């Protein structure tokens, strides 16, 4: 049974930082690319970032480029999202997801590209 468990969310002031973690079990972690998504109330799920199995391929959504950094530690079956210069509009539930392949495709920001999802961790940024 594949499980993805996020942690690290919380309440932070605008301009602050948070580091999200997602630990995956039940599969060979370094066989798959990993993604981060977010969803705010009343909005569609938005692709935040994707990282290939080796970490050599990385993509970011336009809203977070230059502020967020994705990374992974295959020895720990964990993917991270370092979020800096946070803004109130970053407030959302953040989910990690296991890609269907070992690299991020052109359509990496579409939820359909991912097979397994975590329950999410809430990030709230106050102004």
Helix percent reads under 10%
Q: Write down the overall mean pLDDT.
A: 97
The low-confidence runs, each spanning 5 or more residues with pLDDT under 50, are: none
Number of helices: 0
Give the overall form.
Answer: globular
Q: What kind of sheet is the major sheet?
A: 7 strands, mixed
User: Which structural class fits the helix and strand makeup?
Assistant: mainly beta
The Cα radius of gyration reads 13 Å
The H/E string reads EEEEEEEEEEE
- Beginning-to-end CA distance, first to last residue: 40 Å
Task: Give the arrangement of secondary structure elements.
Layout (H helix, E strand, L loop, with lengths): L2 E5 L2 E4 L4 E8 L8 E6 L6 E6 L6 E3 L7 E6 L4 E6 L8 E8 L14 E4 L3 E6 L1
Parallel strand pairs: 2-11
Antiparallel strand pairs: 1-3, 3-8, 4-5, 4-9, 5-6, 7-8, 9-10, 9-11
For the structure shown, list the relevant keywords.
mainly beta; globular; four-stranded antiparallel β-sheet; seven-stranded mixed β-sheet; single chain; 127 residues; 0% helix
Brief account:
By secondary structure, this protein is an all-beta fold. The chain contains no helices and 11 strands. The model has no long low-confidence stretch (mean pLDDT 97).
What does this protein look like?
With 127 residues, this protein is mainly β. It is 0% helix and 49% strand. It has no helices and 11 strands. The strands form 2 sheets. Strands 2, 4, 5, 6, 9, 10 and 11 form a 7-stranded mixed beta sheet that branches. Strands 1-3-8-7 form a 4-stranded antiparallel beta sheet, with no helix packed on it. A hairpin with a 4-residue loop joins β7 and β8. It is globular, with a radius of gyration of 13 Å.
């Amino acid at each position: 049974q594949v499980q993805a468990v996020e942690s690290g969310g919380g309440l932070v002031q605008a301009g602050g930082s948070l580091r999200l973690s997602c630990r995956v079990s039940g599969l060979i972690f370094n066989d798959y690319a990993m993604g981060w998504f977010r969803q705010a109330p009343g909005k569609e799920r938005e692709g935040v970032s994707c990282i290939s199995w080796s970490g050599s391929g990385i993509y970011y959504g336009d809203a977070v480029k230059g502020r967020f950094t994705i990374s992974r530690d295959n020895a720990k079956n964990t993917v991270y999202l370092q979020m800096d210069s946070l803004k109130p509009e970053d407030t959302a539930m953040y989910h990690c997801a296991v890609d269907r392949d070992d690299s991020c495709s052109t359509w990496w920001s579409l939820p359909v590209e991912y097979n397994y999802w975590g329950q999410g961790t809430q990030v709230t940024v106050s102004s």
